[in-house]
Amino acid sequence: MFRNLTPVVKNLLLINIAMFVVANYFMPQLESIFALYFIQSKRFLPTQFVTYMFMHANFWHLFSNMFGLFVFGPLLEQYLGPKKILILWMVCGVGSGLLYSGYNAYKINQLDNTIATFYDNPSPEKFNNFVSKNRHMFKPGVFDFVDEYSKNPESAELIQRAKENFMGIRNLQINIPMVGASGALFGILIAFAMFFPNTELLLLFPPMPVKAKYLILFYGLYTIYNVVINNPTDNVAHFAHLSGLIIGAGLVYYWKKSRKDFY
């Protein structure tokens, strides 16, 4: 099975696994350097648009991405060649990071508007509404503060504490890093589905064959669903997955079109 590994796929697997071992067991400080932080974070570095792809949150995160590369990558590399599959991986990975950062900027801008509205006219109702929507980011003690603030809406001290809570959540948001090769992997998946749409794959759960185009379609729809519902407690960067699909599809379409024009 491992004899069928192609050079680029093998090297990507080795680099990702090596980075995971080093970052988790020898140099944990690498995460703060290599993970992708929001552009307003003090930890942000432009190089993170590349390096974040080689960091993973835990073993299962690494395993799922590398298993996908292991399954779909070799045949794709044999078909496209080592240069193009590396371009596909890197362009989808970097592009996903860029688009996700843009998406993050949109969400931070919404948060800034909420904060500005409260600053202009502070009220317990506005603060309570904010806490309700972002309760997963607050400590349980915040609800005692909500009750106290509701009873004393004119208190300058409580208003100041509410403002500090707003800014604390904003600081948390801009310092949540993104890691993982999922954006790059989703580019591989959509490319496989576009080049080999009718290839049958055997699922493990349930154990049944399914064509590549239907499997990737399911992944795509599931990703879009998660982006739309935007579950605040979900720590998976679904928008980055969707970005990888879109960028990968665009790149494959361009290659297919160029090949037709050439011949």
CATH class of the largest domain: Mainly Alpha
Helix content: over 70%
The order of strands across the largest sheet is 1-2
CATH architecture descriptor of the largest domain: Up-down Bundle
Order of helices and strands: HHHHHHHHHEEHH
Task: Please tally the β strands and state the result.
Answer: 2
What proportion strand? under 5%
Label the overall shape: elongated
Structural class call reads: mainly alpha
Structure description:
The chain crosses the membrane at residues 12-39, 59-76, 85-103, 184-205, 212-229, 235-255. It is found in: Membrane. It is a multi-pass membrane protein. InterPro entries: Peptidase_S54_rhomboid_dom (IPR022764), Rhomboid-like_sf (IPR035952), Rhomboid_protease_S54 (IPR050925). One of its GO terms (molecular function) is peptidase activity. By secondary structure, the protein is mostly helical. It has two domains: 2-105 and 179-262, Rhomboid-like (Rhomboid-like fold, Up-down Bundle); 123-174. It is 70% helix and 2% strand. It is built from eleven helices and two strands. A two-stranded antiparallel ribbon has the order 1-2. Strand 1 (200-202) and strand 2 form a beta hairpin. Helix 10 (212-229) crosses helix 11. The longest helix has 39 residues, at 82-120. The chain is elongated and about 70 Å long. The protein starts with 6 loop residues before the first helix and ends with a helix.
